[in-house]
Amino acid sequence: MTKINKNYLELKDSYLFSTIATKVSEFKTKNPDKEIIRLGIGDVVLPLCSSVIDELKSAVDDMASDSTFKGYGPEQGYLFLKDSIKNYYKEFNVDLLSEEIFISDGAKSDLGNLLDIFSKDNVVVIPDPVYPVYVDTNIMDGRKINYVNGTFENGFLPMPTEDLEGDLIYICSPNNPTGATYNRSQLKEWVDFAIEKKSIILFDVAYEAFIYDDDIPHSIYEIEGAKKCAIEVCSLSKTAGFTGVRCGYTTVPLELECDNVSLNKLWLRRQTTKFNGVSYIVQKAASGVFSKEGRIKIKENIDYYMENAKIIGNALDELNIKYIGGKNSPYIWLQCPGNMSSWEFFDYLLEEVNIVGTPGVGFGENGEGYFRLTSFGHKENIIKAVERLKTLKF
Ligand code: MLT
């Protein structure tokens, strides 16, 4: 008889954002006239910039002509895009080789797929609260998880301790969901810890483009020793509005070894077997992100979202609600007012002012009593949302 992977039965019934989408659509069915403002899932609203659109169009034309048509591409990505990424990293004084960069369809899939190359016996260190994908993908494989606590007191930036055990360590900075960011010396501590314990860090920098402050690294490879202990995963979803286009990149340094085996080789072997690469059209579009005009336009879009974050932060200040984030990150992580639980606050906001956010507890036990708002929205909606928030009595 066929057997299922029983680890799946250990998962929560549905993925956090699917649960929220169901709740919101039930509310909408009962209240068709209410205008809902969605500040829940971190989904971009601004259209792709013109340099991306131009590349997309020219790539479509390429596919229409015998001389420029492309079939299968290199599974790990076209050189033209890898070269753009290499140049981008040079801005942070990080030198990468083309063979170290793997183009993907986004951070979420790579973060899950990377686990293929690691033993299910590995113990995993995951911060709480955290992006649910880290937890769920490890539950699917049946790995033991050691949580490290993020709290208001430590700024939701847990640090390693001597007694901490873990073979794989997840770090997300700027953090989803809290918006907290590790500075250079804090990341150095994690890198030193990983090297000492012979652990591997899976570093998620999906939000690096939102970093404004100089002392916050955009890449873990800015930290000495990181190429010996870290894989870095990035995405163009939030950087350039690619949530619907799908493109990201993962870096596995050539010098990175585990069990005396090159992880770059293992990942290449995994990808060439299970992945046929991102489409030529999408990779061309992604190259438009790194062009001179692309960089300027993308920065304007990020400034726009960060202005939204400021508007939300100012309103929370007025309401005397404590929060972090919203500075080098598009997420604002607030303490639910009136001692409400995360889901109570979710329901309260939805019913009273028709605003959707994300309950902090959906990101882990330490998120109970907290709530995440995203600054990805049109400015007029953000302004409307804060006006509605200000009508509430807590
Ligand atoms: C979020 O809202 O946390 C993100 O949009 C989810 C994701 O990037 O997969």
Automatic annotation (TrEMBL):
- Domain Aminotransferase class I/classII large spans what residues? 35-389
List, in alphabetical order, the Gene Ontology terms for molecular function in this entry.
L,L-diaminopimelate aminotransferase activity; pyridoxal phosphate binding
Which biological processes are named by the entry's GO terms? lysine biosynthetic process via diaminopimelate, diaminopimelate-aminotransferase pathway
Q: Which cofactor does it need?
A: pyridoxal 5'-phosphate
According to UniProt, this protein's pathway is:
Amino-acid biosynthesis; L-lysine biosynthesis via DAP pathway; LL-2,6-diaminopimelate from (S)-tetrahydrodipicolinate (aminotransferase route): step 1/1
Record keywords: Aminotransferase, Pyridoxal phosphate, Transferase
Residue numbers carrying N6-(pyridoxal phosphate)lysine: 238
Output the Pfam families linked to this UniProt entry.
Answer: Aminotran_1_2
Under catalytic activity, the entry for this protein gives: (2S,6S)-2,6-diaminopimelate + 2-oxoglutarate = (S)-2,3,4,5-tetrahydrodipicolinate + L-glutamate + H2O + H(+)
**Subunit architecture:** Homodimer.
Family indicated by similarity: Belongs to the class-I pyridoxal-phosphate-dependent aminotransferase family. LL-diaminopimelate aminotransferase subfamily.
PANTHER family, from UniProt? AMINOTRANSFERASE
Q: What does this protein do?
A: Involved in the synthesis of meso-diaminopimelate (m-DAP or DL-DAP), required for both lysine and peptidoglycan biosynthesis. Catalyzes the direct conversion of tetrahydrodipicolinate to LL-diaminopimelate.
Question: Can you say what this protein is called?
Answer: LL-diaminopimelate aminotransferase
Species, as recorded: Clostridium gasigenes
- Could you tell me the gene encoding this protein? dapL
